[in-house]
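Feature request, filed as a ticket because there's no other form

It would be nice if the structure record came with a short human-readable summary line next to the tokens. Right now we just get the raw output. Example of a typical job, pasted below so the devs can see what we mean:
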Amino acid sequence: QVQLVESGGGLVQPGGSLTLSCTASGNIFNSSVMGWYRQAPGKQRTSVALITPNGSTTYSYSVKGRFTISRNNARSTVYLQMNNLKSEDTAVYYCSAAGRTGTSPYNYWGQGTQVTVSS
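Raw output as currently delivered:
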């Protein structure tokens, strides 16, 4: 059974930094596109950053240049380094793992971790 467990959220002042971590159980990590998404109150969940199995990355426009996604395949862990945080970054952040086993697609989600940017 696959589980994604996020950690690292919390309260930070504007301009500060946080690093989120997501560790996956099961044998899917190395072949999965790993992603970070976020959902602010009253808004839809949106993509923040993605990283492919070979390390290619994409970012949403709002976080490009401030956030960095990375992965450690040996530890089955994906990270999101967030710098120069703004109040609009406040949201619940979710980790995802997407891919295929044979012809069957999968998309797993973590339980989410709260990030609050406030003075």
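Something like this underneath would help us a lot:
DSSP finds no helices and eleven strands in the chain.
The two ends are 40 Å apart (CA to CA).
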